[in-house]
Amino acid sequence: MLRTALRRNAGAMAWGTVLMGMYQAGETAFPIALGLIVEHTLRDRSLGSLALSIAALAVIITTVSLSWRFGMRILQKANTTEAHRWRVQVAACGLQPVARDVDLKSGEVLTIATEDADQTADIIEVVPLLISSLVAVLIAAVALGMASVQLGLLVIVGTIAILSILSVMSKRIGTSTREHQARVARAGAKVADLIVGLRPLHGFGGNHAAFLSYRKVSTEAKSQAITVARVNGAYAGAALALNALLATAVTLTAGWLAFDSQITIGELVMAVGLAQFIMEPLRLFSEMPKYVMIARASAERMALVLAAPPVMTPGTERLSAGGDLEVDSVRYGSLRELKFHVSAGEFVAIAAYQPRAAADLTSILTMNVPPDAYEGVVRVGGRETEELSIEAVREHLLVNPYDGEIFAGTLRTNIDPAGAGRMIPEAVEASMLTDVVALHREGLDHGVRDRGANLSGGQRQRLSLARALAADADILVLRDPTTAVDAVTEQLIARNIAKLRRNRTTIVITSSPALLDVADRVLVLDGGVITADDTHRNLLTTDENYRLAVAR
Predict the structure, then answer these.
(1) What whole-number distance in Å separates Cα of residue 175 and Cα of residue 228?
(2) I need a labelling partner for 216 at 20 to 30 A (CA). Which of 302, 330, 415, 467 fits?
């Protein structure tokens, strides 16, 4: 992944390296120029030489300023663009129809798509800064070597020694950073889980236990952050001390050589200036291994998502419009030899006595469960789902769970996320969302907060139902679409769904008498199998268990 980032930004990095190399060369040239000015001024004592020297310093300063400005602009633009690419790529993996086989929660994936993407892209800036710092150190070493071989060798040997020591310390940083990122991601995932379950937690008084659970993972993340800070502090302190030691050694050596008349006063000024200046490129140069290890740790975490295999390998076949749905001898979880067939254009209700069975059936129809994880087959339009591509199945079969997500945006964008503009008025009317629209001056453009925080439970459920109806799928499966609305509204919604979905295949998994009554027939799911198949009213008169289960 790091090689990919470097290859994709080779051009920007080349220009950035040239400009940052010019910046470091200009910075290095400044003390060299000062030494030459002192040397020539003392020798010539000419105003013309002084003016020429000042002009040369102005050129150096201008070069330093402009090269830094444009070099960093190029590198930071490439860095930001590369981070954006990685974020989009991680998000695309999360949004693919087939889930990846990775043991990460949504909060962890979010951390990877943000912090880790940014830190991986930092390699775009690290390499040019590393090369430009090396240029500065080499120029300083050559300049000092021309004055005295001892000074040049001292800089080269000292730089190698500093980097050798710091490279060992940087490995500890990489290990600590990986662990810190993992713990922060776990804390983020815990927060996401708590936000999703906030209302139920309030309902049964689990707030305190949830808080203690989050505090535990947050404390672990904090402790690891402190460890990382200590390691980084030790690294920075060691780098500063070693760089200062090298600068001091260069200064003292130059002073001794000048005292011994082995170098001139101008060369002494140059050496002292370079000794002070060299600390900055050495600091950058010595910090690069740390940033490389951080980028590598982040890239490894992103690879957990990007390189993870899919949970299943779907087929490639397509489907024609329309079609029926058949579940044939399916055994999964609480389902035992489940068999039923819904013809094209039929409205069928499934009364599941056990909530677990309804959940298992929904999971299979949404294809959250790979076909090889259960026995039996599911056929859409006469074709087995394992032969079809996920896109083909989703194009014809839409399963809307009872806890459908509500997104930040507007009522309109929640009903019609793709912006197709089809059937929005009909879906709003059928789901009885008209009163919510009428409440607000903006109508369908009324703002909706994240997870529908500014809507009631019934409004969120009706909004989710409107989205499912507006999709106008060939086969629509609804699970408990009216549990949060009153009986009168439920009756109206049931009639509206039956009317809107006339001649379209519709399956409703529910215990609502209103929905059961408008269905063409009702399948009773009990003990993992279909135990009865009749109309709602016939079952009420002939089946005592059914009457007790659904009568209100």
Answers:
(1) 9
(2) 302
The 10s digit of each residue's pLDDT in 122-165 is 999 888 888 888 888 888 788 778 878 888 888 788 877 877 77
Whole-angstrom distance, CA of residue 316 vs CA of residue 303: 27
φ, ψ for residue 99, nearest 5 deg: -70, 155
Alpha-carbon span 504 to 518, nearest angstrom: 14
Q: Phi and psi (nearest 5°) for 375?
A: -90, 155
542-552: buried (b, 16+ CB within 10 Å) or exposed (e) per residue? ebeebeeebee
Higher pLDDT, 361 or 168: 361
The b/e string for 511-528 (b: 16+ C-beta within 10 A; e otherwise) is bbbbbbbbbebbbbbbeb
pLDDT of 202 = 58
Reported pTM:
0.65
What phi, psi does 311 have (nearest 5°)?
A: -60, -35
Q: How much helix, strand and coil, in percent to the nearest 5, is found in the chain?
A: 70, 10, 20
Cα–Cα distance measured from residue 48 to residue 32, given in angstroms and rounded to the nearest whole number = 19
User: Is 70 exceeded by the pLDDT of residue 98?
Assistant: no
Contact at 8 Å (CB) between 428 and 434? Answer: yes
**What pLDDT does 218 receive?**
75
- Computed from CA positions of residues 49, 53, 55, 59, in that sequence, does the dihedral angle turn out positive or negative? positive
Amino acid 318 reads R
Q: List strand residue ranges (DSSP E) for 401-520, in order.
A: 409-410, 447-448, 475-479, 505-509
Per-residue pLDDT, 192: 59
Q: Which residue has the higher pLDDT, 62 or 217?
A: 62
**First and final CA of the chain: distance in angstroms?**
59
Rounded distance, CA 38 to CA 50, Å? 9
The candidate with the shortest Cα–Cα distance to 411, out of 376, 385, 441, 382, is 441
**Tens digits of residue pLDDT in 33-71:** 777 777 666 666 667 767 777 788 888 889 888 998 999
CA distances from 148 to 145, 155, 267 (A): 5, 11, 9
User: Which secondary structure element, helix H or strand E, spans residue 40, and what is its range?
Assistant: helix 10-44
524, pLDDT greater than 90: yes
Helices (H) and strands (E) counted in the chain, each on its own, are 21, 12
More confident residue, 382 or 477: 477
Q: Residue 521 pairs with which residues in a beta bridge?
A: 348
CA dihedral over 420, 426, 429, 434, signed as positive or negative = positive
Q: What is the mean pLDDT of residues 102-107?
A: 68
Average pLDDT of the chain is 83
Compute and round to an integer the Cα radius of gyration of the chain. Answer: 35
